[in-house]
Design brief:
By secondary structure, this protein is α+β, with helices and mostly antiparallel strands. Helices cover about 15% and strands about 30% of the residues. It has a six-stranded mixed β-sheet with strand order 6-4-5-2-1-10, with helices on both faces. Strands 7-8-3-9 form a four-stranded mixed β-sheet. A hairpin with a 2-residue loop joins β4 and β5. The protein is globular and about 45 Å long.
């Protein structure tokens, strides 16, 4: 069951390890569940959406072209300098580095029709151990199903030593601060 809840939402940089343009860039995801970040194994794109490579303050970012203005407003960044575009399907199987350096895992770029342009960046944080759509995508792409949460709702050591033992919702703020310390946090609201 779902209910209305106020929570932090974050925009997070995932450094791309490879991409069709050969650019050093970061894919920017958006999530309302920062506590699920340790379980990330993929980033979902819509196959038919147009995505943009944008220069911002000396770095190249990747997100849905239609979301640039909204993301720019929330993150207080100028995202108008588009240097290239592509369809989501052109990025399938590209790889990003997980933003938690201690995890040492890659995040695969996958395709999913449930990606929307209603909110966020068009690049969807995917943790198959934390939701039905993510799980189905994980099975389709043969991704690991990671759920670093114990039976009492606390993060396990698999989430990282800094967060082990924290109740999942209590981990949101420490995870946001951790991302900021790694220069992976692009914005929050």
């Amino acid at each position: 069951d779902y209910k209305e809840k106020v929570s932090a939402s974050v925009f997070v940089r995932f450094p791309l390890l490879d991409n069709p343009l050969g650019l050093k860039a970061s894919m920017v995801i958006w999530t309302t569940t920062p506590w699920t970040m340790p379980a990330n194994v993929a980033i979902a794109l819509h196959p038919d959406f147009e995505y943009a490579w944008v220069e911002c303050e000396g770095e190249i970012l990747f997100m849905a072209k239609e979301m640039l203005e909204a993301v720019g407003k929330v993150c207080k960044k100028d995202l108008s300098n588009i240097i290239g575009t592509c369809k989501g399907k052109d990025m399938e199987y590209a790889e990003c580095r997980h933003p938690f350096e201690t995890i040492g895992r890659k995040s695969l770029v996958v395709l999913a029709d449930y990606v929307t342009l209603e909110a966020g960046t068009g690049c969807v944080h995917t943790a198959p151990g934390h939701g039905a759509d993510d799980f189905e995508t994980g099975v389709r792409y043969n991704l690991p199903i990671i759920c670093p949460v114990d039976g009492s709702g606390k993060l396990t050591a698999e989430a990282g030593a800094d967060f082990a033992g924290m109740f999942v919702f209590d981990a949101n703020v420490p995870i946001i601060k951790y991302l900021a310390g790694l220069n992976r946090l692009f914005g929050k609201e």
